[in-house]
Automatic annotation (TrEMBL):
This is Serine recombinase. The keyword DNA-binding applies. SMART domains: Resolvase. GO terms for molecular function: DNA binding; DNA strand exchange activity. Keywords: DNA recombination, DNA-binding. It comes from Streptomyces cellostaticus. Coiled coil: none annotated. InterPro entries: DNA_bind_recomb_sf, DNA_bind_recombinase_dom, Resolv_N, Resolvase-like_N_sf, SSR_resolvase, Zn_ribbon_recom_dom. Pfam families: Resolvase, Zn_ribbon_recom. Residues 201-324 form the Recombinase domain.
Length: 539
């Protein structure tokens, strides 16, 4: 009797969505907390709430519950909530706080906007002791505090700093134990013919048989795409991978985002013979290799999309087509990638190498124009003209770096001066302590004038936590002379500078005329400011 199978649908794999979890009671409590927050004084501490969840289960605390608990904690502390950094479906073991989409944006760019970070429990915040140490150093540098609802953590005390280190060590041990269990599961999975965990290779999908076991079955659409690609590659005049992708996308057999390199990697995957495989990286090249049992034989997990003869004959053809391809530059063939764009189709200009009669040629071509448009020969000449134009416009701009300035000390000084001014003004009122003799009144008036001048000299901006731009003594011309084209390309890409390449055919001349137009954002000076990466060493 044939086994019945059921393909798992998208609903079985849906990730948790926080928007659907707010109940009427939750929303009512949220409004109540916001009303209480509106009554806080202007100088109340500003709290950023950090909410994180990797997988929602019955045992985990939902993001809604985390946020409400943290808002109640902020109310108890007299803090105003200025934002919620909600990072869902994010592993604290794999992704440190500064690399998370929401929290990372606050830490790297919005530090002046908050005074403390509130989180539900330390393992909701970090799972590695090294990550915790990095965040603590950052908090001490920027004058921020870490507060946990369910752990005794407070960076304003020595005991709190010790406690956060201890609890962080326990969280790392728990994460290591979890990692060991997961690694053990993967190693066990490699030896089994049943599909236990993981994403199937292209060409297959998971299904459930009549016994309730998860198995792999062939995806019919992928089967058609793979077999058509093999026939196209085995022709007397084989189709290129790019041509294959174009046809498959047009026939709706593959997704529109498919690239030639991804398609070739799919065709080279030995999993298409129905064997279990694992990824192997060799010099940056990703390939899959067959996993062998203890007796040296491969582990079959599904019916093969290709037979062994079909698969290996395809590999011979693909190897033959790739033998004479020019060697790739590890750093990329195109300089100023993302800066040079086509005037007609507004896509990136890239260097394409061709070989004819033993000679190698390089052309700058675009992505959407037919055939890459009129190829622009001599890319180095284009680079040289771009460098000259950029130096003329931006070379003399000073290199400014972003520095963080805290306003706490200035605020204390302002408060001291205000209290002193109030003290002397009260004493100079009729019947006050400084009006009893002419000498004390004159001295008090002189002191009051000095205090008022000091108070007036304080810049209101200096009382705030803020970023300031400081000149480091160099111009961008000097910076780029030291770092070369690579440094200039990185800065132009970061700032958003573009250069349009317009190619015009010239009668009787094979090479087109190249016209270059440099496009610089209006706020280029603000964008040129260098921002120190506080977490660069942590990567």
């Amino acid at each position: 009797m044939a086994k019945r199978t059921r393909t798992r649908g998208a609903t079985d794999r849906t990730q948790y969505a926080v928007d659907t979890e707010w109940t009427k009671a939750d929303l009512a409590l949220l409004e109540e907390l916001k009303r209480a927050e509106a009554l806080l004084p202007d100088d109340a501490p500003r709290a950023l709430l950090s909410v994180r969840l990797s997988v929602l289960t019955d045992e985990t605390t939902s993001p809604v519950r985390q946020e409400l608990d943290l808002r109640m904690l902020a109310r108890e502390r007299g803090s105003r909530v200025v934002g919620v950094a909600s990072d869902l479906n994010v592993s604290a073991t794999k992704v440190p706080p500064w690399r998370r989409k929401e929290l990372g944006s606050w830490l790297n760019n919005r530090a002046p906007e908050f005074d403390e970070i509130l989180f539900w429990k330390l393992d909701r915040f970090v799972r590695r002791l090294s990550d915790l140490s990095t965040v603590i150093d950052w908090c001490l540098k920027y004058g921020k505090n870490l507060v946990s609802k369910n752990d005794s953590i407070d960076l304003t005390t020595t005991a709190g700093k010790i406690m956060v280190t201890i609890v962080g060590g326990i969280a790392e041990i728990e994460a290591a134990n979890t990692s060991t269990r997961v690694a053990s599961l993967w190693e066990y999975t490699k030896t089994q013919s049943e599909w236990l965990v993981g994403k199937p290779a292209y060409g297959y999908e998971t299904a459930v048989d009549g016994d309730g076991k998860t198995i792999l079955v062939i995806n019919e659409t992928a089967y058609r795409a793979l077999h058509w690609s093999r026939k196209a590659a085995m022709r007397e005049r084989p189709a290129s991978a790019r041509r294959m992708v174009k046809v498959l996308v047009r026939a709706s057999l593959c997704e529109s985002s498919l690239t030639a390199s991804t398609h070739l990697r799919r065709l080279r995957n030995p999993a298409l013979m129905g064997y279990r495989v694992e990824e192997e990286k060799n010099g940056g090249v990703r390939r899959s290799k067959i996993v062998l049992r203890s007796d040296g034989k491969p582990i079959r997990v599904a019916e093969g999309v290709f037979t062994e003869d079909e698969f290996y004959s395809l590999q011979e053809v693909l190897d033959g087509n790739g033998k004479n391809q020019p060697t790739r530059n590890p750093e990329g063939a195109t300089r100023f990638l993302g800066v040079l764009i086509c005037h007609d189709c507004v896509t990136n200009m890239t260097v394409q190498k061709t070989r004819s009669k033993g000679r190698s040629y390089e052309y700058l071509r675009c992505g959407k124009c037919k055939g890459g448009g009129q190829g622009a020969p001599n890319p180095e000449g284009v680079y040289g003209r771009l460098v000259d134009d950029v130096l003329k416009v931006l070379g003399d701009e000073p290199v400014m770096t972003r520095e963080y300035r805290q306003g706490a000390e200035t605020r204390k000084e302002q408060q001291r001066l205000e209290q002193s001014v109030s003290y002397y003004m009260t004493g100079l009122e009729p019947g006050g302590r400084f009006t009893k003799t002419q000498f004390t009144q004159e001295q008090a008036e002189k002191t009051l004038d000095d205090l008022i001048k000091q108070l007036q000299a304080i810049d209101p901006e200096s009382t705030k936590d803020r970023w300031v731009a400081v000149h480091n003594g160099k111009t961008f011309r000097e910076r780029w002379e030291e770092g070369g084209m690579e440094a200039m390309a990185a800065d132009l890409l970061r700032v958003g500078v573009k250069c349009e390449i317009k190619r015009t055919r010239v009668k009787g001349v094979r090479a087109p005329h190249i016209h270059m137009k440099l496009m610089i954002p209006k706020n280029v000076r603000d964008r040129l400011i260098l921002k120190e990466d506080d977490f660069a060493q942590a990567f």
